[in-house]
Specification:
The structure holds two protein chains of two kinds.
Chain A (H helix, E strand, L loop, with lengths): L3 E14 L2 E14 L3 E5 L6 H7 L9 E10 L2 E2 L5 H7 L4 E4 L13 H10 L7 H11 L16 H13 L5 E5 L7 H18 L2 E6 L2 H7 L2 E6 L2 E7 H6 L4 H10 L47 E2 L7 E2 L6
Parallel strand pairs in A: 3-8, 3-9, 6-7, 7-8
Antiparallel strand pairs in A: 1-2, 1-4, 4-5, 9-10, 10-12, 11-12
Helix pairs in contact in A: 3-4, 3-5, 4-5, 5-6
Chain B lengths: L1 H9 L1 H22 L31 H37 L1 H16 L2 H12 L3 H27 L3 H7 L5 H9 L4 H24 L10 H8 L8 H28 L7
Helix pairs in contact in B: 1-11, 2-3, 2-11, 3-4, 3-6, 3-9, 3-11, 4-6, 5-6, 6-9, 9-10, 9-11, 10-11
The chains are: A alpha/beta, B mainly alpha.
């Protein structure tokens, strides 16, 4: 391992709207080493997408503010970056692919042109054409796809096109926010295999964000579990999914196995995710936690090694 | 592009108006290039009624009306098209910048455009032309000044809608500069309604030029339909052909450009159903 391409430490980010303050990130910690594949899982509203957008400086400056913590990309502190500074590092070293490839492609521009735009921003013009052809080949699109408009392609082909656009920047870190959620299951598997293959071929790091545990488990070396703006557990994929430590991860995995319990119902985590505008100083999972005790609602536990589990880090009083 | 033509040709008014405009352009070009034709040529037969010699009759100096009407197409097309081009260019640039960046820029552009829209346009045009001179350049400039606000407003609305679409964030992620995003990604998505509105400006411009000429607010050396109407009105009861033919030319041309604007608008709209 030779340094981290992305470092997020205890980042707190608040959205302010009409007097209410919601903490989308509330002490999130996440590191991605160069060339490493990291997964981020959590349910809707846990702050995953905010984290993804933050890594590209796409947080709306008017309503959102980083209150504390630190974020560094390629060793450079970007916590207080201005829009101009962000513009210089977007694409290279960090690029992003999105959930719904149709709405993230320009509807009136041919796919080949869009790939060329991305290449043009980061490389000399002379090699433009050969780079576009190479990128199409990399994502396994036929050369004829360059002449197509986004709406003429299938969902899977669009996601390949979006990947080609992102790769046109030669990123060192690819942030993929739910890249397969809008696709059907067989296409999901193809795109996932493609992302894995591209990562190995190009040696880039990957931050894969998903609520689908299976997808993350199959594509990533390390996993972070996010709940209500906190990263609550992280470690090797085999540890986090094989021997989960945090009660939330345990519940999530049970629910994902779709196992019926004694009453013949699917396993769920009791209760609702907390309102991010009304967070207590303690662990946000306390009201739903089967292991909750007195100190849980008073203070968020610091990260530490898990007991009776794998080699992962966990933020839970039950493990202190 | 193929689908554009399919939709355009499915619209009957589109074919008719498109054909008429093409013919008009051909006439203007022919009168420009044909050697030995002189619309100022005076003949013995002054104010002659339409006949086989002079299909549209002659005016008070014995000039052939048909030749005059055909020559008038040059001025009308030149004024209409260049004014529409200028107004669209100006309107798109100001409207796009206002819609994209918002804030004080938006406020300033919108207030200025409102100023031009609330002043009675014809009176403003007449004042400007009488102050600045009666050349075609002045007429075009006045029309540009009067017509850009409508283009700017349409562009602004479209840009405000498009800048929130997700693909704009996606290109921003590539490290593209903001003005580049506006020019190469946002504005091309706003082309359809803007182009349709621009075509309508051609009709407005032709009509305004004719009105100004009719009132004598154009140079007497220029052969234009409005100028011919102006000359003909004195002889309305003796020589109807001096007014009817240029009037008809204005009427048909303005109608054609209006229909063309509608046809372009619906052909560029992907939601239009092809019958």
């Amino acid at each position: 391992m030779n340094g981290n391409i992305l470092e997020i430490d205890a980042l707190r980010l608040a959205y302010r709207t009409r007097g209410t303050v919601a903490y989308a990130m509330n002490g999130a910690t996440l590191h991605v080493a160069e060339g490493e594949a990291v997964g981020l899982v959590g349910e809707s509203g846990s702050g995953k997408s905010t984290l993804a957008r933050a890594t590209l400086g796409l947080i709306p400056a008017k309503i959102a503010r980083i209150e504390s913590g630190r974020m560094a990309i390629g060793g450079q502190d970007v916590t207080r970056f201005t829009e101009d500074q962000w513009q210089a590092i977007r694409g290279n070293p960090v690029a992003m692919v999105f959930q719904d490839p149709l709405s993230y492609l320009n509807p009136v521009m041919r796919v080949g042109k869009q790939i060329a735009e991305s290449v043009r921003l980061h490389e000399p013009r002379a090699i433009l054409q050969s780079r576009v052809e190479e990128l199409l080949w990399l994502v396994k699109l036929p050369a004829a796809a360059a002449e197509a408009y986004p709406h003429e392609l299938s969902g899977g082909m669009r996601q390949r096109a979006l990947l080609a656009v992102a790769l046109g920047c030669k990123p060192k870190l690819l942030v993929a926010d739910e890249p397969t959620t809008a696709l059907d299951v067989t296409t999901q598997a193809e795109i996932l295999a493609l992302i894995r293959e591209l990562r190995e071929r190009l040696g880039m790091a990957l931050l894969l964000i998903s609520h689908d545990l299976g997808i993350v488990a199959s594509a990533c070396d390390r996993i972070y579990v996010m709940y209500a703006g906190h990263t609550v557990e992280w470690g090797k994929a085999a540890d986090v999914f094989g021997r989960p430590a945090h009660p939330y991860t345990v519940g999530l995995l049970k629910a994902a196995q779709a196992a019926r319990n004694a009453e013949g119902r699917f396993a769920t985590i009791a209760g609702d995710p907390p309102n991010l505008a009304e967070l207590s100083p303690g662990c946000p999972f306390t009201p739903r936690c089967p292991l909750a005790r007195a100190e849980c609602s008073a203070e968020m536990p610091p990260p530490g090694p898990a007991r009776n589990a794998g080699a992962q880090e966990v933020r839970c009083w039950a493990h202190r | 592009m193929r689908r554009f033509w399919q939709r355009f040709l499915a619209y009957r008014a589109g074919i008719a108006s498109g054909g008429y405009v093409a013919l008009l352009a051909l006439v203007a070009l022919a009168t420009l290039l044909w050697p030995g034709l002189d619309p100022h040529q005076i003949s013995d037969a002054a104010m002659a009624a339409p006949s086989l010699d002079h299909l549209f009759g002659t005016d008070e100096l014995g000039r052939d009306m048909l030749l005059g009407v055909l020559y008038g197409a040059q001025v009308s097309l030149a004024v209409g098209v260049s004014a529409a081009f200028g107004a669209t260019l100006l309107g798109v640039m100001l409207g796009a910048a206002a819609g994209f960046w918002g804030g004080w820029l938006d406020l300033a552009v919108m207030r200025i455009s409102e100023m031009f829209q609330v002043v009675p346009s014809f009176i403003l045009a007449a004042v400007i032309v009488s102050l600045s001179g009666t050349g075609l350049t002045q007429v075009v400039a006045v029309i540009v000044l009067l017509a850009w606000p409508q283009i700017a407003r349409i562009t602004r609305g479209e840009v405000m809608r498009i800048k929130q679409l997700e693909f704009v964030d996606a290109v921003r992620c590539l490290g593209m500069r903001e003005w580049e995003i506006l020019a190469t990604e946002v504005v091309p998505n706003a082309v359809a309604p803007v182009l349709a509105a621009g075509t309508l400006v051609v009709a407005q411009a032709i009509l305004l030029e004719a009105s100004l000429s009719f009132l004598g607010l154009s140079s007497a050396d220029i052969i234009s339909w409005g100028r011919m109407l102006n000359a003909g009105q004195r002889f309305l009861f003796n020589a109807w052909w001096m007014s009817v033919f240029p009037g008809l030319a204005i009427f048909l041309t303005v109608l054609a450009f209006n229909l063309l604007g509608d046809a372009v608008g619906s052909a560029l709209n992907p939601r239009t159903v092809t019958r």
